[in-house]
Write a structure and sequence with these properties.
alpha/beta; TIM Barrel; Spore Coat Polysaccharide Biosynthesis Protein SpsA, Chain A; 4 domains; 8-stranded parallel β-sheet; 17 strands; elongated; magnesium; Beta-monoglucosyldiacylglycerol synthase; transmembrane; transmembrane helix; Nucleotide-diphossugar_trans
């Protein structure tokens, strides 16, 4: 088996490495010239921020100019304020020409000082200031009108004998041709990335737009004042930011520019992290050199998307091998196909995680990016864990070569069958329903049993007295107790009956008050206790009222998955969840672990865990031996699931040391795995609720501050979307294959399960911060909710659903300079996040309708 595991991992590793290699095939591009026309030059370094007055020193500026001295003919600056006035003088020492820029904005008084300083510096450095640039994208930003800008241009032209112009994106020149009448050259920005132009068309786009300007202004030379591509940031249209794309675009452009004899300034020499505040994350990554003045890509060698791909592939393979090894622990019954499936998932998850972390650490870390990184790593870890546990269940539910713990009937003579004491706790239940339950028990085909009914805290004698009388009619085997007050909820009632159990009873069986059991229940299952290691024998919960309404039919479809998939896979490692009906427990073991826990509202699952801690075995058979009644309303459906989820957290908190530490516990690794992994999706639901609320806050911020707040990066939304799709695919597949559900039943199950997500989320979160939420029973034969009352039961879900829809709408209608795939995915994410809440509203509406008498609903 070890050889098979290794062989599968090797094959998948080779395929994975091959995919890494294919995605990183070297691309041959034109060689970077030994000397280019010009760079946009902003000599800021780490910690510098001109908006806060934090500027580089002259020594740092000169060091940058020395670096560029033999690589460029010229540089372009953006302001003459402060230390920037020294740039022409310092550049002259390194034989570099300067396109001297003045920064203009809405502050007219400041503009006057900037213009005066521009004229002064240009006159003082006439030897290497070859042109001046009055304003940068001033019209685009709306800081100045064309008329105002023309006035500044006229003044500077009159004062200087060198070419005077301004810099705007190419389309502003087309839109405002009057600008051309006040300049000596057309200073155009050509940044195809911002226009969403795909890489393959980008250089052609620049050439076409340059030709368009030449045609529009035939008597004015065109200078490309900014041309470039970012190495990091969000995707815009079909333009992807990456180091390889930056290298490819610039090397292709420089080749074309040499042929066309363009005047150009590459945007830009050095990365500028401070720009993230005004231009978004991408603003930091336009440099040919990074913040530490290292080239970000090769100038003459082949271009590779991820130069370190071999190392990353190796790390991915190593992580995937370790992950696969963990997944293969105790998997002797898993077929080769199942092992291959898990290996593919492990390698995919490892590659995804490595790539995400690689991309994250190739950005400049600020307080905000660090916080986002912590969120990203935390979320990614959670998503991967849930993904792997879901994949593990999928594999073990589908590709088991043989069952390790099949149910094997044991036939023994009647005189060797143990006496069974059947306990029926009840509270305020309809007498007719109780009589039906007791009548079914009276028909049991079993030689030696008793039935103890405990009614705890029912106030109305008209409810419990008819049941007491019916027990008398059924004979001495049936005993009835009414206790008021009786603390401890259901667990307290069961502990009470345990004390009243006949001394000779060896087995305690529990059913809910609404269950009608099959006559053969005890005969076919109680014999399992002849194995002295067996402490629990469990049959699944089942329901007889699934055809009463569409609502109950949908709930029934949802219930079946756990008992026909989850419990079956857990049984393979003796790790079932004991549930408080259709269960039998060896009495001596029950007393040895001190009975039912009255502190826990899921006393059944908690008891099962304590019994496993003692090293005992459980037997599970996935066949129905009794049927009860489902919740009648969506509100009761939610209350039941809230209790189960809240109780799960109570158990996790109380048994944390046993579950997470091997020493001092009778639990096997498989049992600890299933108890933790089984509740992990519910914990993920609670995290998803927090994520949803954060998404709403983020979307509101986007609507209020569209120029400051962008949609989250694609990877932040891709992770939860990937998990949602995977879980949905798993459910659809397993319901069809294992539950043998129809497509309609599968969809009904999905809707019913999704409708409980918010309830489970709240229960899990409250479970970690509270400890005393009381037991909530599930009423039977309750009156159907009217529509408004039913909707009231889903009011929280409805509000969140509407908030998500409004957020999605606002995201798509906010006026923006550009639309990005990130925005589209964020829009999709908000809609997908609304599906569970929409399902809850749908289920609430469905629960308000009931069928006519004698009418059946079948999905």
């Amino acid at each position: 088996m070890l050889r098979v595991n290794i062989l599968i991992c090797i094959v998948v590793a080779l395929i994975c490495t091959g995919l890494w290699a294919i995605m990183n095939r070297p691309g041959q591009e034109p060689v970077w010239p030994s000397r280019i026309q010009g760079f946009s030059f902003s000599p800021l370094r780490e910690g510098d921020n001109p908006s806060k007055g934090q500027l580089p020193s002259e020594e740092e500026i000169e060091a940058d100019l020395a670096l560029l001295a033999n690589k460029t003919n010229a540089i372009r600056t953006y302001t003459v304020n402060g230390v920037y006035e020294s740039i022409p003088r310092l550049a002259y020492k390194h034989n570099i020409n300067v396109a001297l820029g003045a920064w203009l904005d809405k502050d007219l008084e400041k503009n006057e000082k900037e213009i005066a300083q521009l004229i002064k510096i240009a006159r003082e450095n006439y030897r290497n200031v070859v042109r001046v640039v009055v304003g940068n994208e001033t019209v685009l930003r709306g800081d100045l009108t064309v008329k105002q800008l023309n006035s500044y241009l006229d003044r500077v032209q009159a004062a200087l004998d060198i070419p005077v112009g301004t810099a705007e994106p190419w389309h502003i020149w087309i839109k405002e041709p009057s600008l051309g009448e006040h300049v000596d050259y057309i200073g155009a920005h050509m940044l195809p990335y911002w226009e969403g132009i795909e890489l393959q068309r980008a250089v052609g786009h620049v050439t076409n737009r340059t030709s368009l300007l030449m045609e529009k202004f035939p008597n004015k030379p065109v200078a490309i004042m900014e041309v470039g591509w970012p190495s990091n940031g969000r995707t815009i249209g079909r333009a992807q930011a990456s180091p390889s794309n930056e290298a490819t675009f610039l090397r292709r452009f420089l080749k074309r520019a040499e042929k066309e004899k363009y005047v150009y300034y590459v945007m830009e020499a050095f990365d500028q992290p401070w720009k993230q505040a005004s231009e978004g994350a991408v603003g930091a990554y336009w440099g040919v050199y990074d913040l530490n003045r290292h080239p970000k890509f090769p100038f003459d060698a082949a271009i590779i998307s991820i130069p370190e791909w071999k190392l990353l592939a190796g790390i991915s393979v190593l992580i995937a091998f370790m992950t696969s090894a963990l997944l293969f622990i105790d998997s002797r019954s898993l077929s080769s196909r199942g092992r291959g499936f898990l290996t593919v998932i492990a390698f995919s998850a490892a590659s995804m995680a490595v790539l995400i972390i690689y991309n994250y650490f190739h950005q400049y870390l600020t307080v905000s990016t660090t916080l986002i990184g912590v969120m990203l790593v935390t979320g990614m870890t959670g998503v991967v864990l849930v993904l792997l546990t879901e994949a593990h269940e999928w594999a073990e539910a589908t590709w088991i070569a043989y069952p390790r713990r099949p149910f094997i009937p044991i036939i023994v003579p009647d005189q060797e069958l143990p006496m069974v004491s059947i306990h029926v706790p009840t509270y305020n239940e309809p007498p007719d329903m109780m009589k039906e339950t007791l009548q079914a028990l009276s028909r049991l085909d079993y030689p030696n049993f008793e039935v103890i009914v405990i009614d705890n805290n029912t106030k109305d004698p008209n409810v419990w007295q008819p049941v007491a009388e019916f027990c008398k009619q059924l004979g001495p085997r049936f005993r009835f107790f009414h206790e008021d007050p009786l603390p401890g909820f259901k667990a307290g009632a069961l502990n009470f009956t345990l004390a009243k159990t006949a001394p000779e009873a060896e087995v305690v069986a529990v059913i809910d008050s609404d269950y009608a059991v099959e006559p053969q229940w005890l005969r076919e299952l109680a014999s399992q206790f002849t194995d002295t290691l067996v402490a629990i024998v469990q049959a699944p919960q089942d329901y007889r009222d699934s055809k009463e309404s569409l609502f109950k039919s949908m709930c029934y479809s949802e219930y079946k998955g756990f008992f026909l998939i989850g419990m079956v896979t857990r049984n393979e490692r003796n790790a079932i969840i004991q549930h408080g009906t259709m269960t039998m427990v060896r009495r001596s073991v029950l007393e040895d672990v001190n009975g039912w826990a009255e502190w826990c509202i899921t006393e059944d699952a908690e008891l099962g865990l304590r019994i496993f801690e003692k090293g005992h075995k459980a037997v599970y058979i996935a066949e129905s031996y009794g049927k009860g009644l489902m919740p009648d309303t969506f509100n009761d459906f939610k209350k039941q699931r809230f209790r189960w989820a809240y109780g799960a957290v109570q158990i996790l908190r109380r048994h944390a040391q046993v579950l997470f530490r091997h020493s001092g516990s009778g639990l096997t690794r498989g049992q600890r795995y299933h108890f933790i992994a089984g509740w992990l999706p519910w914990i993920a639901d609670s995290a998803n609720l927090l994520f949803t609320l954060s998404a709403l806050v983020w979307s509101v911020a986007m609507a209020l501050f569209p120029d400051k707040i962008e949609s989250p990066l694609l990877i932040l939304t891709a992770l939860p979307l990937t998990l949602f799709i995977f879980k949905l695919a798993k459910m659809l597949y397993l319901y069809r294959q294992r539950v043998k559900a129809s497509i309609l039943q599968t969809v009904a199950s999905a809707l019913a399960g999704l409708a409980l997500s918010h309830t489970i989320s709240k229960a899990i979160l409250l479970g970690f911060v509270t400890s005393g939420i009381p037991f909530a029973r599930t009423p039977k034969n309750a009156a159907s909710h009217a529509l408004l009352r039913a909707l009231q039961s889903a009011r929280e879900e409805a509000l969140i659903m509407l908030a998500l829809w409004l957020s999605a709408y606002s995201v798509m209608v906010i006026p923006r300079m550009y639309n990005t795939p990130d925005t589209l995915v964020w829009f999709t994410f908000l809609l997908v996040q609304s599906i569970p809440y929409m399902s809850a509203v749908f289920m609430a509406i469905i629960s308000s309708f009931s069928t006519r008498k004698n009418e059946e609903i079948t999905l």
